[in-house]
């Protein structure tokens, strides 16, 4: 398995027979090298969106049309995106699980907000914010999406038992490093944690030092853009 950071909250996950693009915000992302877009999207089979905000979902329709691949996300957001010509969608809901080849993706709760403004005429409701549990190659990956600490993490950790956590941790809009580390200790038994939703803007955390210090015994990997993490 390869987990490749695309900057901010975007990831390319090569797992089993799938190449998943999670929240692939490329155009306009200040930490993504624009000349390497084809490298980031080549061979992708599906797009997963945690919610509708522009720093997560604004490139999804264009990538879907370009590659002819579906966008999997919460139902309301799938209806909005699917109304565009050439955009394929898979709408599902929290608690639901879809099979993508040999990979199973379950949608779980998050605490944030979700709207989309892809026409430039103001934001519209885009269904609830979410995270994902991605199962394949004998691993379970928890993609938190944008969230704060929440009680639901207790049952999610016990039921899905993820060993890899991709956790928002930049602060201001989401959990910060200290909070994400606390949630990881309290609710999960991760072997590997990858922070995200940080470094992009000055208002967000620029280092995962606090998380590393707070999670002794856990492999905390500060990702580098387009450099594969092999699990």
Task: Give an overview of the whole structure.
This protein has one domain (2-223): Metallo-beta-lactamase, Chain A. It has 231 residues and is of the alpha/beta class. It is built from seven helices and 16 strands. Strands 6-5-4-3-2-1-16 form a seven-stranded mixed β-sheet, covered by helices on one side. The relative contact order is 0.16. It has helices at residues 37-41, 54-57, 60-67, 75-82, 152-160, 177-187, 209-214; strands spanning 2-5, 11-15, 18-22, 46-48, 71-74, 89-92, 97-100, 103-109, 115-116, 124-125, 130-136, 139-143, 164-168, 192-196, 219-220, 228-230. The model has no long low-confidence stretch (mean pLDDT 96). Helices cover 22% and strands 29% of the residues.
Topology:
Layout: E1 2-5, E2 11-15, E3 18-22, H1 37-41, E4 46-48, H2 54-57, H3 60-67, E5 71-74, H4 75-82, E6 89-92, E7 97-100, E8 103-109, E9 115-116, E10 124-125, E11 130-136, E12 139-143, H5 152-160, E13 164-168, H6 177-187, E14 192-196, H7 209-214, E15 219-220, E16 228-230
Parallel strand pairs: 3-4, 4-5, 5-6, 12-13, 13-14, 14-15
Antiparallel strand pairs: 1-2, 1-16, 2-3, 7-8, 8-11, 9-10, 11-12
């Amino acid at each position: 398995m390869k987990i490749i950071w695309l900057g901010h909250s975007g990831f390319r996950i090569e797992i089993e027979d799938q190449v998943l693009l999670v929240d692939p915000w490329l155009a306009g992302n200040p930490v993504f090298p624009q000349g390497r877009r084809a490298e980031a999207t080549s061979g992708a089979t599906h797009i997963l969106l945690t919610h509708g905000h522009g720093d997560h979902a604004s490139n999804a329709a264009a990538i879907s049309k370009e590659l002819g691949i579906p966008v999997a996300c919460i139902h309301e957001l799938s209806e909005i995106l699917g109304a565009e010509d050439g955009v394929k969608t898979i709408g599902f809901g929290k608690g639901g699980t879809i099979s993508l080849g040999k990979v199973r993706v379950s949608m779980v709760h998050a605490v944030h907000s979700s709207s989309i403004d892809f026409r430039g005429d103001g934001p519209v409701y885009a269904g609830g914010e979410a995270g994902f549990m991605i199962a394949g190659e004998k691993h379970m990956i928890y993609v938190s999406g944008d969230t704060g600490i929440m009680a639901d993490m207790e049952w999610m950790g016990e039921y899905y038992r993820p060993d890899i956590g991709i956790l928002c941790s930049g602060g201001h809009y989401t959990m910060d490093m200290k909070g994400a580390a606390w949630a990881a200790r309290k609710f999960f038994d991760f072997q590997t944690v990858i922070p995200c939703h940080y470094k992009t803007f000055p208002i967000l955390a620029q280092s995962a030092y606090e998380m590393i210090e707070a999670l002794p015994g856990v492999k905390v990997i500060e990702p580098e853009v387009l450099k594969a993490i092999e699990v």
